[in-house]
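Example record for the data management plan.
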Amino acid sequence: MSNRAYKIALVAGEASSDMIGADLIKDLFALSPGVEIIAVGGAKIKQTQATVILDNEAFSVMGLVEVLKDLPQLLKLKKSIVKRILAFKPDVFIGVDSPDLNFSVAKNMKKANIPVVHYVSPSVWAWRPKRIYKMASFIDCLLTLFPFEVSIYKKTSIKAEFVGHPLAKKIPVVIDKALAKKQIGVNDNKKILALLPGSRDREIKSLMPIFADTVKQLHLSNQWQIMSSNVSENKKALVDLIAAEHQLKINWVDSASDLLQAADFALLGSGTVALEALLCKTPMVVAYQISQITWLIVKTFKLMQLPYYSLPNVLYQGFLVPEVMQKDLNVVNLVNTCQKMLTDDDCSRLIKAFTEIHLSLLTGNSNQAALSVLKFLDAKQ
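Corresponding structural encoding:
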């Protein structure tokens, strides 16, 4: 527990970072009750003691080209955030994931001599690895979610520390699917297909039509129930609208974690949700699609370093779960891939690998990220 009443500014730019940021904020208040925190965040951060200065919904964009369309508004919002944080005069700025947003804010903080902690390493192991040298000019301390990431930063002045993944701490290592079904109101003799096309509007509009047609063509029996979860009512409405256009009925669960713990199979977009499915020991097929121009840039300049892109496969360092990506992402390919997974009677190898990865993402202290932030601040005094 820290005896100092630190002032902290935190920015979490999207749904996954909102969850991570909220956990950090709660632990910081528990360890240092006098701490004062302002934040950019979403629904979960709004439930903490932090003072929310801006909702992060405005930053829910993705891709190199996709961002350009919203660039004027994004720049205006960034400028406003920087102004609010500088007026607050924090002892530290913490950017949670969202490097496109947080690195810009962090550079302004460094110019004002405000220490910078970044929580969640960008995917430098997957694409644009040389970013680490630029990051060293404006990041003092980096808290990583995955143990292998620490060694990447040894070539730089950045102090990197593995603090564990919040989801790995929240989700049980051993999952009781039958109990999880009862907890969300589903009979344990029913099977659940979790349909999770993403938390951003563009992801939903891109993936949901393909997902809906795929589910229809799988011709699942009445034993299966199609369920989903999302972070806002607007997103739910968008998914329901697209599903209805494809004659598909979606049943909703508030928590993605609760749904994935109960699910027998998941069809989902790439991102944190794929890791969440792994932690919930749910077999999955991962889909990913970005604009053709963005993809052309990525391929032309060889920005991708790995042959796979979903977090389960990155952590496994091989193709553990099926991925259907970009030009290959169509209903025929997705149906065939899902059918192979659904007809695989032996999931024991998969669950064993999921469990081993889960255990690797745990640390001795469930509040390690908050402890590391306070240790960093104490060292600055």
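Summary line stored alongside the record: The longest helix spans residues 71-88.
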